[in-house]
Amino acid sequence: MYRDLAFDPYDDSLDESELGDYDFDDYSLSDPDFRDLDFDDYSLDEPDVFLDVPFVPTDEKVVQAMLDLAEVTSKDLLYDLGCGDGRIVVAAALDRNARGIGIDMDPMRVAEAMEYAGNTGVEFMVDFFEDDLLEADFSQATVVTLYLLDLVNVELRPRLLNELRPGTRIVSHAFDMADWRPDERKSFSGINLFKWIVPAQVAGAWQWQASDGDTYKVELEQKFQRIKGKAWVNGKKAQLNNALLSGDLLELLVQKDAENSPISFIMRCEENQLVAADGDFQATPAVKIKDTI
Any idea where the Methyltransferase domain is (predicted)? Predict the structure, then answer.
């Protein structure tokens, strides 16, 4: 299913050497790559409205790389937060047949984006609004694109995690989200692009029945998409060999004892239950329980 997304369980008490091969110094919030930035169009005169982020157009090739990384298709609704002149939203409509909405605090940029959409003939597929990014409703998005500053990304992060549906893809140009590690990172012409998949909330104690009649329980701890935990089978301690979370999909690899091979349970988070998404080992949905062992 998604075994190539393997990660090491996260524990705030662990030092970097215990967290596997993830390199915290691989990129830095304090050292973004500005090689593609062109400030010629940015006026130093006092603006009519306060802008948290200056308008810096994204190169068209980078726009395509962002849409590729987000895997945008005609089934998507893309929101570009801080849309500027609307080029990402328009490109998604033109090249991917995707619906799009751009949000920006600058009314002049919103007007430019609407004019651009009209000139390219995609005005019926897109819309643009003047709004505060910290208050605008983008909960219906299946893809969110960002070209903001790191501090703005971090300020938006709670809303992205709590208001977007699990599985929504987020792609950011140049800036990451502090300790929310990206699910994927690519460098395009020296520019860092980051991708996150909004994870389902699966922390807590869960119980389900297997097809052989055994009762499984797990207690899961979660930090973003990273999961660790403990497992029991029929009330006896078992081994949780691995736990992977990607969007609304959760895979738990549980070993009953040394005499039995591990069993992989692949579940989808739906309405506070974990229902079987693949395989025939799980007989009932996993439900949250209050008691722990």
Answer: 80-165
